[in-house]
Amino acid sequence: MSIVKINALTVPDEQREVLEQRFASRAGAVESSDGFEWFELLRPVEGTDQYLVYTRWRSEEDFQAWMEGPMKAAHQGGGDRPKPAASGSQVWSFEVVQQAAPKKA
Predict the structure, then answer these.
(1) Residues 44-98: pLDDT tens digits?
(2) Which sign, positive or negative, has the C-alpha torsion 58, 59, 60, 61?
């Protein structure tokens, strides 16, 4: 089964719009990666200042290949690179052991 990576990003209120705009402008950056299955950016509603970046991958190897290739290249840059919108980041890893989809009528 698939693996899930969740990047928990601590984002101050004044940086929320910046973060969302940056993710909107990166549309398509991961979708063509081998083994990529799903992406969601989850905005906190209450009780936390953490956004969750949810990605699902066919395997850990596919995720690592993306991390070492396209993702690494996209996050390297010169001195004109904008300041990060998040003040902290933590990556959580999970294996999918069960899943369900809506039943068809």
Answers:
(1) 999 999 999 999 999 999 999 998 887 766 666 555 667 888 888 999 999 999 9
(2) negative
Which pair of tokens denotes residue 87? Answer: 């003040």
| Rounded distance between C-alpha atoms, residue 76 and residue 50, angstroms | 24
Task: Give residue 79's pLDDT.
Answer: 57
Whole-angstrom distance, CA of residue 68 vs CA of residue 63: 9
Alpha helices, DSSP H only, in the chain? 16-25, 60-66, 72-75
Strand-pairing partners, residue 54, are: 6, 40
The residue assigned the tokens 């990003």 is 9
